[in-house]
Amino acid sequence: MVNKKLDIPIFQNPHLNGNTRFLEGRESTGFLLIHGFTATTVEVSMLGMYFFKKGYPVLMPLLPGHGTSPEDLNTKNYQDWIDSVESAYADLSSRVDHIIVGGESIGAVLALHLGALHADIMALLLYSPALHVPMLKKYRWLRWVRPIINKGNYDEQMPWQGYTVYPLKAANEFFKLQCKVKKELSDINTPLLIFHGLYDRTIAPIVSDQIFSNVSSINKKIIRMKNSGHVMLLDREFDMIADLTFDHLKTNHIL
To answer: Considering only CA atoms, which of 35, 200, 222, 23 is closest in space to residue 111?
Structure first.
């Protein structure tokens, strides 16, 4: 798939494996890692491999409408994504005794939803949590005129896989999911770790502050990354982010 007007691929890095992946580890605590909007599991695979190499099982589900085509994503609704991560959570629960849920962007929003429903989750790891994206409100009306638009921020150097366009009907479902999860924040008591990149041009830092203030969790922390953008789990500070995550989980006796 190629955007002929811009001469760029609509699906970036198709050669990478962005399917649902389960990495079987020896430990009794498993990680459920959820990718972002228009992306695939490639977005969380480096973090998944990091935990797997330390002996932990990792499940990375591919969300419905992702890894196929923008048109397919436009046929999905936010409940499809919720059902997908609920199914993944049940699957991982059958394999391990304890679960830590992490996600990037919309994956972090879905992680928050799981945290509101499942009090037994050991911790929530939120990377660039996209609980408010200003442009989504505009896309709610534009979707009737142009169901798919160019992103305008194509970066072929990043080892990211996904669509280089925005399916706007799906973006409206993203907006609905945000509205739902905002109402659930006070139901979350799970230990919470939030990472926000100061070079994030998609999510304002205040979004992480709002999550921090509105959850009921006692054990919660925000870490600001000085040189990371929105896709921080594939960015230049990944090694530091992974180590800080693991050290936090160990220090707080979650692992």
So the answer is: 35
Instruction: Specify burial of residue 84 (Cβ count, 10 A radius: 0-12, 13-18, 19+).
Output: buried
Task: Give the chain's residues under pLDDT 50.
Answer: 2, 4-7
Report residue 225 as tokens. 């990354």
pLDDT tens by residue, 92-123? 999 999 999 999 999 999 999 999 999 999 99
pLDDT of the residue at 136: 76
- Alpha helix segments (H runs only) across 68-214: 70-73, 78-93, 106-117, 134-142, 168-182, 205-214
Q: What is the SS3 string spanning 28-65?
A: CEEEEEECCCCECCHHHHHHHHHHHHCCCCEEECCCCC
Global pTM reads 0.95
Q: Cα–Cα distance between 140 and 38 in angstroms, integer?
A: 17
Q: Specify whether the CB–CB gap between 180 and 112 falls below 8 A.
A: no
Contact 157, 192 (CB under 8 A): no
Query: Going by C-beta distance under 8 Å and a sequence separation of 6 or more, which residues neighbour residue 193?
Result: 123, 124, 125, 126, 220, 221, 223, 245, 248, 249
Residue labelled with tokens 């085509």: 69
Distances (CA, A) of 221 to 103, 124, 191: 16, 11, 9
